[in-house]
Write a structure and sequence with these properties.
The chain is mainly β. It is 3% helix and 49% strand. The protein has one helix and 14 strands. The protein has a four-stranded antiparallel beta sheet with strand order 5-7-11-10, with no helix packed on it. Strands 9-8-12-13 form a four-stranded antiparallel beta sheet, with no helix packed on it. The radius of gyration is 23 Å and the shape is elongated.
Length: 158
Amino acid sequence: MRPRVSVQDHALRNGNFSLQIDPVRLEDAGLYEAQVSYSNKVQNCQVELGVVTVTLNPPGFVVENEPLLLSCNSSHRASLVQTCWFHNGQLISSSGNLCSFHGTLSILRPTMSDSGPWHCQLRYSDNEIISVTHNLQILGFHGPINPIVYAAAGSAAD
């Protein structure tokens, strides 16, 4: 896992033997165990790391009016019961432009107003609720609907 993993040496002296992972990946999920020996004592600690991700398809920049798919996944082992999507704090329900199904959200014709935080909330059969937020950026045009640009002959126009 190097170079994504570190232990702060100065923190060890104060009894903090935390493991830092940056960035966390889906495959990092699982059980971690630490064992610290000092004097005649041995301390053990186990921590289970769960990982949740939001992926964008197609990856990269999203262009206005080009369909996109947001997928929300978690390493949690129980059965997924419900997925809720929120945009700017508002619960999203399926409509003509939005379709939510089993951890995914499809936006058929994204607009600039779809930019911003999308929050995915997963509820599992063991009543565990896991959530994550993805900041969606839409590339589009801000301005009049039918812009007219005038330029002098022989000059450049942007």
